[in-house]
Write a structure and sequence with these properties.
The chain is of the alpha+beta class and about 160 residues long. It has 6 helices and 4 strands; from the N terminus they run ββαββααααα. The protein has a two-stranded antiparallel ribbon with strand order 1-2. The chain has a two-stranded antiparallel sheet with strand order 3-4. Helix 2 runs antiparallel to helix 4, helix 2 runs parallel beside helix 5 and helix 5 packs across helix 6. The longest helix is centred in the last third of the chain and has 17 residues. About 5% of the residues have low confidence.
């Protein structure tokens, strides 16, 4: 679906047609969370609101499975949107001295036909550290404290 922005006062909005809203079980009273991942917008109902299931704050158990590269990629996207840069990423990655970047790891997670990461393997553990870091940031900690917490919860060795 292609949309254009519509002027609304001094801002802009996106008009969502009624069939689309009905399919998403959203109405005019549903509060929506808007997140930016890179250049991608994600709009989802806030958990606990009318017609709403899981949200970014309450992922399903499958969403937390860091053996699945797409899940690790989504966590990485949210961390990048929150300010994760390559030096911070290298602190969390299993090969800290390797010239790895967030973009390179994202591409690795998104490669076509990628199988699952090995359970408790280096990539799955990196994904778990990324998730632990994200959880700490969501709780309001600083980047340094979030990285320290992630390394404490999921050590590199």
């Amino acid at each position: 679906m292609i949309k254009t922005l519509t002027p609304i006062g001094n801002s802009f909005g996106i008009v969502l047609e009624k069939p689309l809203l009905e399919a998403a079980e959203v109405n005019r009273d549903t509060r929506l969370r808007v997140q930016l991942f890179g250049r991608r917008f994600v709009i989802e109902p806030v958990e606990g609101e009318q017609g709403v299931g899981a949200s970014a704050e309450q992922p399903s158990p499958d969403d937390l499975d860091m053996r699945k590269p797409p899940n690790a990629g989504r966590v990485l996207d949210e961390l990048v949107a929150r300010g994760l840069d390559d030096p911070k990423f290298r602190r969390l990655h299993h090969a800290e001295n390797y010239v790895n970047t967030t973009a390179r790891h994202r591409a690795y997670c998104a490669r076509p036909g990628a199988g699952d990461f090995t359970s408790d393997g280096t990539n799955e553990r990196t994904g778990r550290r990324l998730l632990a870091c994200l959880e700490a940031l969501r709780a309001g900690t600083s980047w340094d404290d979030a990285i320290a917490e992630a390394l404490k919860r999921v050590p590199k060795s």
